[in-house]
DNA sequence: CGCAAGCGCGTATGTCATACGCACAGATCT
DNA sequence: AGATCTGTGCGTATGACATACGCGCTTGCG
């Protein structure tokens, strides 16, 4: 069996990520395997945050000894890389048929859902994505530009701009929705805290926007979730307006 | 001496951050103080990254014992909060005279410089800002809207949108400019890695944009710094185009 | 049937944040 | 001046954590 040598010289993480997983081995039938480990790790991080994910606790959950994990994962950083690649799952199918704006909107909302389900992804100061899981999302997003006149060179920057916004906005949303004071939660009601600390003489512009009801819900009937979602879509439209201007220049 | 009771009931961090620092005390003249500690901590984080900042190493640099630090800082999280508040320094003076677009542009570029100088700020999964240092920047940014018709309620979301973009873009820029393979650095040349891993059959849209030279410098004469800066300003203009549309609706 | 590859895991090491309490300095009070 | 009390610097100890190393076992292959 000649192995695919396309991935020579790459860091071990990338090799494991991009290679076909299955091959028959010696040794005992695996009680443990990479999928089980990564899945359990994601469950812990989802439930209790990234800080609660230790190799010891992970082993505990899997009913094995701590050091057994290291047969399948070189170190914790590698584990995190695997988690990042697996957690987002399959991206939505985007085609150019519905128009670029609808495609990017659906893509953004789907990605926001991923981040809300796995907020720990946002804590990982991940640089640019190199794993198949995340690149599949990039691929899906790029397909929205299919029918447009936007030059290919300018497409990824636009998608990255969206990505930055989605990550930033969702990070704050996730912190806001978490129980106050808890891990990653805000210290009580953010608007109330600001209203106490911000004095009009020192921060006039800030005081003005607070006074105008920036953190006051438009109606008590609107849940924080809905409010944050509406706020997200509004900012998204702002960005897409800018993209529309760019497209106007291009075509 | 009656202390200002405006800050009762707030978390200790906020109280220390917002109170006047000076008051005469008992005990020996302080060899150590909060400013010295935070300044040294920022220096370590600037030079070697957040991971290299341990209480032991910080004490070492200050020529004191590890536990001495805890007389001035409740714990490491509090230290990080102080660092976040002090590191950005004074924001630029923005007034509405030059127009909102120029004001926001200058603000964004100045903030980008802060993040390039202190990349560790981006690693701190900080939620919304509550310290005077960061709020001073928010205040400065909001002043750019002074002469516009944008309703006060809609100003902070726009500023947050800019903030997300600045943070995201600069985080990748900082990682790109770091020595490859080092702490926080990319695994070699990102474009080259992607070109090897991305097969057109599996990632056609991604392959197309790579083929179109997304990661190829327009000219060898352009340094990576300049290229990233130009890319930053381009994305910024995109966002501000969207804000202009919004302003068109408002006024 | 032997053998070695691959596996699970016990033990040990080094790093880290931090609780606790001692001893001392010096300002305040008598 | 002397007693007192508050705040400081710090030595020691603890417990969490990632992880190096090496032992014994299992099992598919020759």
Automatic annotation (TrEMBL), chains A, B:
Residues 54-73 bind DNA. GO terms for biological process: negative regulation of DNA-templated transcription. Pfam families: TetR_C_1, TetR_N. It comes from the Bacteria. InterPro entries: Homeodomain-like_sf, HTH-type_TetR-like_transc_reg, HTH_TetR, Repressor_TetR_C, Tet_transcr_reg_TetR-rel_C_sf. GO terms for molecular function: DNA-binding transcription factor activity; transcription cis-regulatory region binding. Residues 31-91 form the HTH tetR-type domain. Keywords: DNA-binding, Transcription, Transcription regulation. This is TetR family transcriptional regulator. It comes from Sphaerisporangium rufum.
């Amino acid at each position: 069996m000649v192995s695919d040598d396309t991935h020579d010289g790459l860091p071990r993480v990338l090799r494991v990520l991009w290679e076909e997983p299955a091959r028959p081995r010696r040794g005992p039938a695996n009680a443990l395997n990479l999928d089980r480990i990564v899945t359990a790790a994601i469950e812990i991080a989802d439930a209790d945050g990234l800080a609660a994910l230790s190799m010891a606790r992970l082993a505990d959950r899997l009913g094995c000894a701590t050091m057994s994990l290291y047969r399948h994962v070189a170190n914790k950083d590698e584990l995190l890389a695997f988690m990042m690649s697996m957690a987002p799952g399959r991206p939505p199918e985007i085609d150019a048929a519905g128009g670029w704006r609808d495609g990017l909107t659906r893509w953004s909302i789907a990605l926001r859902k991923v981040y809300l389900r796995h907020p720990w992804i946002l804590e990982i100061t991940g640089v640019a994505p190199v794993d198949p899981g995340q690149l599949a999302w990039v691929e899906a997003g790029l397909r929205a530009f299919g029918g447009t006149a936007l030059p290919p060179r300018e497409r990824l920057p636009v998608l990255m701009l969206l990505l930055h916004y989605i990550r930033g906005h969702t990070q704050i949303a996730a912190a806001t929705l978490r129980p106050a004071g808890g891990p990653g939660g805000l210290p009580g009601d953010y608007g109330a805290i600001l209203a106490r600390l911000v004095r009009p003489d020192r921060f006039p512009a800030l005081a003005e926007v607070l006074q105008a009801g920036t953190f006051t819900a438009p109606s008590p009937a609107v849940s924080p979730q809905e409010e944050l979602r509406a706020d997200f879509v509004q900012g998204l439209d702002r960005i897409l307006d800018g993209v529309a201007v760019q497209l106007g220049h291009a075509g």
